[in-house]
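pinned: reference chain
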Amino acid sequence: MKGVSSFDQMGTFHLNIHVTNRCNARCIGCFGCFPVHRELTMREWFPIIDRLQALTRHLPERKINIAGGEPLCYPGLIPLLRYSKQAGFITTIITNGLSLSDLTIPGFVDCVDYIGISIDSARERTNRRLGRASKRRTPSGDFYHSLATELHKYGIPVKVNTVVSRFTVQEDLIPLMQDLQPLRWKILQFTENRATPEKFRKRLSISTDAFKHYCDKVRAADLPVVCEDREMVRSSYLLVGPDGSAIGCRDDSYQVQPISWEQISSLSELEQFFPQFRPDSFRKRQG
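pinned: its structure tokens
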């Protein structure tokens, strides 16, 4: 099926590629753990990037965001980013930051436009409750300050993603964000899925009113804030899973639909694999 896609109309194409379910943390409310049983290798992703380049080369803005799981657990991350950058895409990652250091950060200098860091809390105790910790490290406000300082030292801009849950809705992150000076602070309402055990859903879920109140408070600060409620989280993204399948979010479940990438000849054909995608939601979150 050929025709004019939503991406042609918007002049932009953003794709989240979740290259792995592996992670060095055990976040109890993880959104990025998908029901797939295979992980494509770096070289298996290359022809998909080539196909995406051919489909989108006419658009003014094209972005690929690499996520997980934790993308730094994926062994081909840097070559995949570099390949995507050479194909003309804006390239970004979203990471928990636990594996970023003065040893690993230099490798990203020539292959990312910015790095997104997941920061739900600046308190070690809260991060431990959330599972946002590795065997060697539990992040704190000081950790995030040092991490952002190191990234800025190498000229890498920082973006922040914050998931607001019942554990964090009362915490004031504004001073930390004023210190980090992210180019964007994305605030997302905790969105459950079937991979989240029922006991954790009840412990983490917050109402739409509570989320709106949180957003109203942070919007009062002079920061580049974008807020996304559950509906927007589920309807404004194109997600591709570790095996190259389209991932759809409906209610609390994922729908996995395999894509024969070599047979896709237009963006309108590709869009059919993402029936949950709503261009108006994408516009509301400003890309």
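why pinned: The two ends are 26 Å apart (CA to CA). The chain has eleven helices and ten strands.
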